[in-house]
Task: inverse folding
């Protein structure tokens, strides 16, 4: 008796745990796009990279501030022989004995002119931040587009499973009817076996569709940062906003190009910094010093202020190669921009052709579904009147099911191709 109660308790606990483990979510397509761009692990890593670049810019701005140093030195020394050359009057000597020395210094240097090193260094950090931000946006757009593909792929798998499940019910009833007819000698046993075989094939296809849905669901959970056991409930495309086709005829500048243009600005800044090495550095300097030698001398209020200048003579023969390297980097970026523009034009052309193809296929799928429905009606009527055989009826049933699946997949594919075109033309905007 105790074992029975214990088993029941375990079953209830297991059911409860399983129920809590599987969280169900309903997501619209726009939610998926924004979640992929903000909550996925990759998106968070991209945000961290942008933040790091921003902090480097803030750090670069500090180079405009003066350099300040304070130092103090205390020395214990032996009893040195002190021989002052200054006349101190008559006597047998000063008899100075000292064994301690203290020195304190404060110095401040404020750059006044650096040939543009500081200004261009700050601008380089700012342009690098912009390049990283644009590159992050481009990567997030690809992440979101990948999420769109998975979301629509999950819709296709779910629709396929639902349509097959619906057909399984019809096939099961058909098997029941065929068994009755076979027992009454109306049809041959071979016809019953064909119907049973088709039912088995439908069940196998249904399991395949369920497996595909689970795999894609898991991948979408991983991408969006959900728990792996989260179940994305049956998706509907009714709420998907239609794409403005006039919008995709306009070509906005892609974030990949914006990033490369910012990288070009960075290279130009680095070139200016290299050229600035030919100029001297002028700075204002000020300070304060204090000195105390035990029993000998104490110096306080020794403040100073002035101008300083420095020039790196080595830059006259060392800097030429740095400038050539910076110029070569500029040339490389220009080549990369040209190649990326070519790649984008190819992507736009391919995306447009894919949209046109998806539209034509969808139109044909709709026609095919109407034809398969009518064909099944006619074949079934013929079968019931003994004009068509079992093979004709089963084939018409398969064709009708395939037409329904094709149309459901085609509708999702058209949306998918529209979003590919939005990305290609620079209109796939994420918040």
Result:
């Amino acid at each position: 008796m105790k074992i029975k109660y214990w088993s029941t308790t375990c079953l209830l606990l297991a059911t409860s745990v399983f129920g809590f483990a599987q969280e169900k979510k309903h997501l619209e397509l726009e939610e998926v796009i924004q979640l992929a761009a903000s909550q996925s692990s990759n998106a968070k890593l991209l945000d961290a990279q942008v933040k790091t670049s921003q902090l480097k810019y803030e750090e670069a701005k500090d180079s405009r501030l003066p350099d300040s140093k304070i130092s103090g030195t205390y020395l214990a020394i032996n009893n040195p022989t002190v021989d002052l050359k200054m006349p101190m009057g008559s006597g047998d000597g000063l008899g100075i004995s000292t064994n301690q020395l203290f020195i304190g210094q404060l110095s401040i240097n404020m750059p006044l002119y650096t040939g543009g090193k500081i200004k261009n260094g700050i601008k380089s950090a700012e342009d690098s931040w912009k390049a990283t931000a644009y590159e992050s946006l481009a990567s997030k757009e690809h992440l979101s587009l990948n999420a769109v593909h998975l979301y629509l792929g999950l819709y296709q798998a779910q629709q396929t499973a639902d349509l097959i499940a619906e057909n399984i019910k019809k096939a099961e009833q058909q098997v029941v009817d065929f068994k009755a007819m076979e027992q009454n000698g109306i049809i041959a046993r071979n016809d019953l076996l064909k119907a049973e075989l088709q039912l088995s094939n439908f069940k196998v296809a249904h399991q395949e569709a369920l497996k595909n849905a689970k795999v894609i669901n898991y991948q979408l959970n991983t991408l969006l940062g959900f728990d792996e056991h989260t179940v994305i409930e049956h998706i509907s495309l009714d709420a998907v906003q239609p794409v403005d086709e006039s919008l995709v005829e306009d070509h906005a500048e892609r974030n990949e190009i914006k990033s490369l243009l910012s990288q070009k600005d960075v290279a130009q800044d680095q070139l200016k910094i290299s050229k600035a090495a030919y100029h001297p550095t002028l700075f204002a300097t000020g300070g304060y010093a204090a000195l105390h030698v035990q029993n000998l001398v104490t110096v306080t209020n020794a403040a100073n202020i002035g101008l300083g200048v420095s020039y790196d003579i080595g830059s006259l023969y060392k800097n030429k190669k740095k400038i050539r390297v910076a110029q070569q980097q500029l040339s490389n970026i220009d080549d990369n921009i040209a190649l990326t523009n070519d790649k984008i034009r190819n992507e736009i052309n391919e995306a447009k052709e894919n949209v046109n193809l998806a539209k034509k296929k969808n139109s044909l799928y709709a026609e095919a579904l109407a034809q398969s429905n009518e064909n099944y009606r006619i074949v079934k009527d013929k079968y019931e009147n003994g004009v068509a055989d079992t093979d004709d009826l089963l084939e018409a049933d398969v064709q009708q099911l395939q037409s329904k699946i094709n149309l459901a997949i085609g509708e999702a594919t058209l949306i998918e191709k529209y979003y590919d075109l939005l990305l290609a033309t620079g209109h796939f905007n994420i918040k």
